[in-house]
From TrEMBL, chains A, B:
Top enzyme category: ligase
Protein name: Nicotinate phosphoribosyltransferase
Cofactor(s) essential for the protein: Mg(2+); Mn(2+)
Function: Catalyzes the first step in the biosynthesis of NAD from nicotinic acid, the ATP-dependent synthesis of beta-nicotinate D-ribonucleotide from nicotinate and 5-phospho-D-ribose 1-phosphate. Helps prevent cellular oxidative stress via its role in NAD biosynthesis.
Gene Ontology process terms (BP): NAD+ biosynthetic process
Protein's organism: Penstemon smallii
Source species, domain of life: Eukaryota
GO terms assigned for molecular function: glycosyltransferase activity; metal ion binding; nicotinate phosphoribosyltransferase activity
Length: 555, 555
């Protein structure tokens, strides 16, 4: 990289995806930067708020994610000569060369980022990030910051919602890479689903990049690739403790299969099982005797997959190994999981195999919030869910509307009006607080002007809806948490928040979700969490609004 | 890169996104590879088909995209030592080290890829790609190939559908980067929307990577960042031909604004326009006198934005410059575009400015197929559409279900059964043809066994529905096009298809879409395009099906 800027080198790595460069932005950020520069305005100090207007998925909460990647971009924000040459090519030839020299020296050393910590539960209108700096530079940051935060927060929220429905005790596996919106869609999905509360991913690249636990065993193709038991040439298997060797593991499995078939309690459930499937299971067990998990629905779950699995699992058990379990990838997952569980329990009892009834059951196949909810209502015996398409593409709502609005320039507050009140921006450089009640739940988020005194513990404070004058409430906070922290101090000398590991962010996120009042979190008709402004900020917003709105002329 | 394989070096660059590596796959591909290796099966020759089962967006066609990235991955498919170490860490410690030596030597020199050409219109069940090679290697390719093709084809199809509704004469701009599913979602979207028929993108990185034309001017923030005309200090502007200089362009604009206000025909349409907006427009025009395009809805389109724009455009016109136009980003786009057009036409007439009535009108704001269709029905005057969120996230259907199924191993055809007939796979290594009728339209796609003679021009051939015995038709093709071509010959010595430029693929795609019979393409109730198998393949499928399906036992 022939970066030419002279910005701060504070040892923060660049973004995970090397394609995230200062060119990953909209062309109009460069045309505007040029127009600012040409008008001598490029260094005017601007403050932009990054926020969203509505929680996704019909819910009343959002998980904030993507911050670390933003800071990594900002810390390394410099143009290479190659990039500058391309920008020059892309702008009209009349553009003065001085502008490109300006880009050469440009970095984010004069930009300040205050943000809510990654993994926090967040709400509409409250800035997730306040970006302050020379207007031309901050403008260039708009698109990449939105790109890095929009999908990250959307998919982390989706993961948290899936966790909420599945329950805390279930293992949740993200299996979405093949259906994700592009390779990075896949890698980001794995990262932010883990952050939002998933336990593992199938995505090996994401496992390597972020230390996310990996899961996966075999597919239908593996089962179909076997024709018969004759294909298994190496048939011996050492016992788990190494003390003896079973010379013909295949025979041992076949013996167990006969016992199962003759069992009084299981009798009549199945006849001839599929022999290619059996060959595949045995081969897989020979390769992974300590990690035997079989996909049991290639032919017929109850008449072939389950008996074949159990025969192999019992043969393994005889050698001291404990099978992990099965995966169901089609059919009625509630019914099949219950039937499989019954089968396992009968075996535990009839053949006196301790804990065989607890053999793990993983389910996959187009799962989403609704199907998890339906499974819960029907009753099921699934221990782990593998979730792909709906999770990673956020099928129920594939985009979050995070926006980036100018709220102050040259110390002058700015407001963006709109016929649609929900689209009016909240002006001024602001501070934001979360106020907690006596039961420990967050009660309300409040925005104040930069220089207002912060809300005080135990003191009554008036919280006003920013646009609806009749909605207001007094709150006596038992705890006050300032939400916006400094993540990039520019030259301000303020101390910089550390960027924690993804594991710590995940823990924080789970904790944040746990501390919410349950009625904000429920799937159907959740209670909106309150977002407010101080009385002083309320008055100022409405003063500015009147001032800026054109007075109609009846002509 | 410390790649350790010894594969073919034929000078194909790696994938665009450096994160696309052999690790971008599901863990189970490695566990299966190990199990194949352990069973001595890893080099068994397998054939997999990559296809989808249903066209997206309720339509009856799909654009095939993503092939070039797949070939780039395959051409460079080798593990680094670092990656092998990670795989070893991720698999159970009992895995034998010989397997990792095997991975060290692994590449795709023994893999053969036959595929439909990128940019072709494609249909369900027909393999988009046939991947043949050692089963363990081909299995490792499954996830990355699906990841690279699923979203690419989905978003290219979405772009083609938007083009279809917008009409050929409109300029279509992709503005989706900020809402895309991650940075690569954004870059892939720009690439494949261009391929599917868009004209330009706002995404600078995509412009640089793929040579896609770039578009963009300014945002609302640019308008809000100005307070008054006093901010404009450098007020002179040279005429377009360089022959004279207007010393006070601001005054010239103000003079035009007064003229507009006094105009008999425009009289009464507007009063005082917003001065910050005017200052922003003038600054933008001073920076880009040849490329003046203004966003006119920050305050009030008809009472401020349009008059301000026209005053600046007319002042530019006086200096020999021609303004490009306006952008509308909110409100009733049909109404506002028609009113703006009227305004421009009055000016053309009243002030005798040739072609002013044709000033460009760009519209944006949450556009999708439905809103474009509604605009057409209402009547509008928009020349260019900027489309973001709905286009790039494929909001109407955010995932395509491309799958990868084993159809043959060791020359033995394999079938994957399912209770759901639409999920039964079509076995055998196959050839695929598109048969054209006498009017030049494609009539039907047909799959045959690898060794069947190809359909002959002018000779009657029976085309059968693969699963419905009563659906069959005789076709006498006027043209026969073999669909699967060799893109990666492995060691077969077959000649390799070239990878054309994205511009050529885009042209091919547009041509392909144009040659389809119109009833397959319409938005509502399109006619399904027929996909068939030869009589011989039909018989074989059903023979194999009966052979594999378990005979129920009435127990």
């Amino acid at each position: 990289m022939d970066a030419v800027g002279n910005g701060p080198k504070i040892g923060i790595d660049g973004p995970t995806n090397p394609m995230v460069t200062p060119l990953l932005t909209d062309l109009y950020q460069f045309t505007m930067a040029y127009a600012y520069w040409k008008a001598g305005k490029n260094n005017e100090r601007a403050v932009f708020d990054l926020y969203f207007r509505r929680n996704p998925f019909g819910g009343e909460y959002t998980v904030f994610a993507g911050l670390e990647e933003c800071i990594k971009l900002i810390a390394n924000f410099r143009f290479t000569e190659d990039e500058i040459a391309f920008i020059q090519e892309s702008l009209p030839p009349s553009c003065e060369v001085g502008f490109f020299d300006y880009l050469r020296g440009l970095d984010c050393s004069d930009v300040e980022i205050h943000a809510i910590s990654e993994g926090f539960v967040v709400f509409p209108k409250i800035p997730l990030m306040r970006v302050e700096g020379p207007v031309a530079v901050v403008q260039l940051l708009e698109t990449p910051l939105l790109t890095l935060i929009n999908y990250a927060s959307l998919v982390a929220t989706n993961a948290a919602r899936h966790r909420f429905v599945a329950g805390k005790s279930k293992l949740l596996l993200e299996f979405g890479l093949r259906r994700a919106q592009g390779p990075d869609g896949g890698i980001s999905a794995s990262k932010y689903c883990y952050m939002g509360g998933f336990d593992a991913t199938s995505n090996v690249a994401a496992g390597k990049l972020f230390g996310i636990p990996l899961r996966g065993t075999h597919s239908h193709a593996f089962v179909s690739s076997f024709m018969s038991l004759d294909e298994i040439t190496e048939r011996s298997l050492q016992s788990c403790d190494g003390s003896n060797v079973c010379e013909d593991f295949v025979s041992s499995v076949q013996t167990w299969l006969s016992k199962l078939k003759l069992s009084y309690l299981l009798g009549g459930i199945f006849g001839e099982t599929n022999q290619s499937e059996l060959a595949a299971f045995i081969s897989y067990a020979l390769a992974f005797p300590k990690n035997f998990l079989a996909l049991v629905d290639t032919y017929d779950v109850m008449r072939s997959g389950i008996p074949n699995f159990c025969a192999v699992a019992l043969a393994l058990n005889g050698l001291g190994y404990k099978a992990i379990g099965i995966r169901l990838d089609s059919g009625d997952l509630a019914y099949l999981s219950c039937e499989s569980r019954k089968f396992f329990r009968v075996i535990e009892k009839e053949f006196e195999v301790p804990d065989f009834g607890k053999t793990g059951i993983t389910a996959s196949n187009d799962l989403n919030e609704e199907t998890l909810d339906a499974l819960n209502k029907q009753g099921h015996e699934v221990d782990a869910f593998g979730i792909g398409t709906h999770l990673v593409t956020c099928y129920a709502q594939p985009a979050l509307g995070v926006v980036f609005k100018l709220v102050e320039i040259n110390n002058q507050p700015r407001i963006k009006l709109s016929e649609d009140v929900s689209k009016v921006s909240i002006p001024c450089k602001k501070r934001c607080y979360r106020l907690y009640g006596k039961e420990g739940y967050p009660l309300v988020d409040i925005m104040t002007g930069e220089n207002e005194p912060p809300p005080k513990l135990g003191e009554r404070i008036l919280c006003r809806h920013p646009f609806n004058e009749s909605k207001r409430a007094f709150v006596v906070p038992k705890r006050v948490e300032e939400l916006l922290k400094c993540f990039w101090p520019g030259r301000s000398g303020e101390s910089r928040e550390e960027l924690p590991s993804i594991q710590l962010i995940r823990e924080r996120c789970i904790e944040q979700l746990n501390q919410m009042r349950p009625d904000h979190m429920r799937r159907l008709n959740p209670t909106p969490y309150k977002v407010s402004v101080s009385a002083k900020l309320y008055d100022f917003i409405h003063f500015l609004w009147l001032n800026e709105a054109p007075v109609g002329e009846l002509l």
